[in-house]
Design brief:
The complex is a heterodimer of chains A (about 110) and B (about 110).
Chain A lengths: L3 E4 L2 E5 L4 E7 L6 E6 L5 E7 L5 E4 L2 E6 L4 E6 L8 E8 L8 E3 L3 E6 L1
Parallel strand pairs in A: 2-11
Antiparallel strand pairs in A: 1-3, 3-8, 4-5, 4-9, 6-7, 7-8, 9-10, 9-11
Chain B lengths: L4 E3 L2 E4 L5 E6 L6 E8 L3 E9 L14 E5 L5 E5 L8 E8 L8 E2 L3 E5 L1
Parallel strand pairs in B: 2-10
Antiparallel strand pairs in B: 1-3, 3-7, 4-5, 4-8, 6-7, 8-9, 8-10
Classes of the chains: A mainly beta (about 110), B mainly beta (about 110).
Chain lengths: ~110, ~110
Amino acid sequence: ELKVEQNPLFLSMQEGKNYTIYCNYSTTSDRLYWYRQDPGKSLESLFVLLSNGAVKQEGRLMASLDTKARLSTLHITAAVHDLSATYFCAVDAAGGATNKLIFGTGTLLAVQP
Amino acid sequence: GAGVSQSPSNKVTEKGKDVELRCDPISGHTALYWYRQSLGQGLEFLIYFQGNSAPDKSGLPSDRFSAERTGGSVSTLTIQRTQQEDSAVYLCASSLGPLRVIQYFGAGTRLSVL
């Protein structure tokens, strides 16, 4: 059974600081997603990582994928309050053969002014 | 609208009643998914429709749950004889197809079973 683990579950950080959220998964997959969810809102797609070594950046967020280590990271650079949200990683349940996503537990990010 | 539309946004029901949740995917999207988000279980896959193929029902938690998709567009998730543990936010997503990797999510239906 595919398991996806994120850490930390909760992250409180000050504006201007850097931090990394980690996403580990238990079986082979070459497709990994990052989503953002604001309170009471739905999920917004941030990144899709499709191959080993893939790196994508958007603003202050950068995501990377290491399929050999079964690890993805979401790095936050110089955090601002607007980044406060819950971040989820998700992995295709059949290693790319389906679109059935298995989500991590989520990381609640609170950026303090 | 341009996004995935779900209705109702909130539903309160009594234990034992049946409920129907509706999802209207983005126009032209052939793939449709239902997920459930709850405090205890996080985000869980429920069911996946792709075109005219048989749906992947592997995530449905019990036979009280069923879903259909009419005309390759609108989908209805039905929960029969609701239980308190069914209380959750039910999210629908759609994508252009199985090879189109991004799933776009609706705002969800918050179901409360009293």
